[in-house]
Amino acid sequence: MAKSSKQKLKLLYLMKIFMTETDEDHALTIKDIVGKLSLYDISADRKTLYQDFEELRTFGLDIIAEQEGKNFYYKLSLPTI
Prior knowledge:
The chain is of the alpha+beta class.
């Protein structure tokens, strides 16, 4: 699959997805995240998403991974004031 010109924006779109689609009560699977990125014409696979999550954590986002059964769910934890 050819990479779109938007591929360089993947981290920004990931941040947007985490900020608008997740919270303490709502999380996404990797499959969900791949689907949401595809709406922006951005391709992603599981392995690169794990690396992207680490980059966003390094940037300062608190991305939480929780396991329920065999599935992992990811969400952004916002600081409480």
